[in-house]
Amino acid sequence: MKREKLKNNYELYSYLCSLAELLNQRGKGEFSEKLVFASKFFGGSSSEFLYETKDALNELQKAQDIFLSEQEKLDLKKIISQIDDAFNKIGGG
Length: 93
Known about the structure:
mainly alpha
């Protein structure tokens, strides 16, 4: 499923939750747990949430070849790029 550009942190949070569930279903609980951990920062500061999310997604991106489809890989890359942009806008980069 092709993902459109995220509009806010809530959409990023929703993406994390969906991806964590998908990874858990695929037997990749260790990555799922990292995404769930990052999602817990949603209610805090934007910079903390973006930092933890980017960290978890970067780890996933390094190991993605085994268990993500081509479209999921593209979505992941785009979302990391969006986080970089947002992070830089709030001065966290």
